[in-house]
Amino acid sequence: MDELGSVVLELAGIVNRPDRDDLLLAEAGVSLDRALFPHLVRLSVRGPTAVAELAAEAGRDHTTVSRQLAKLESLGLIWRPQAQGDARTRPAALTPEGEAIAEAIGAARRRLLSKALASWSAADRQTLVRLNRRFVDSLMAGFQAK
Q1: Domain annotation covers residue 68
Q2: What predicted TM-score, i.e. pTM, was given to this entire model?
Q3: Residue 109 contacts residue 99 (beta carbons within 8 Å)
Q4: How many domains does the chain have?
Q5: What is the pLDDT of residue 133?
């Protein structure tokens, strides 16, 4: 398990490096604060999502995510209906402009991953996806059981 733990930490370090975010945004041709684009990507995958849920997924407190969503809203990339009760439950959703940026980021991610895995066989790439899906599902189930 020490080897697995080491690989997981190394992968997390690679994924979370600011220069990787800058590379992805440049590849996408998008000019956006790198603290904001993960919310666009999550919303493109999940659909309308409440601030509290986005904050939990991002590992940030809801006030930070709420400020980031307000910035995205001011840029016309998301919309949020008026709050009725707790603002943390108010969903955020992509505007057409936000959807276009999220798609550009997704396409850039696919291009960069294709380059990184160019020497891998199709079977190896599919195995990577299958095992990573299983790994993530197992981790999530383990954390939910606590």
Answers
A1: yes
A2: 0.85
A3: no
A4: 1
A5: 95
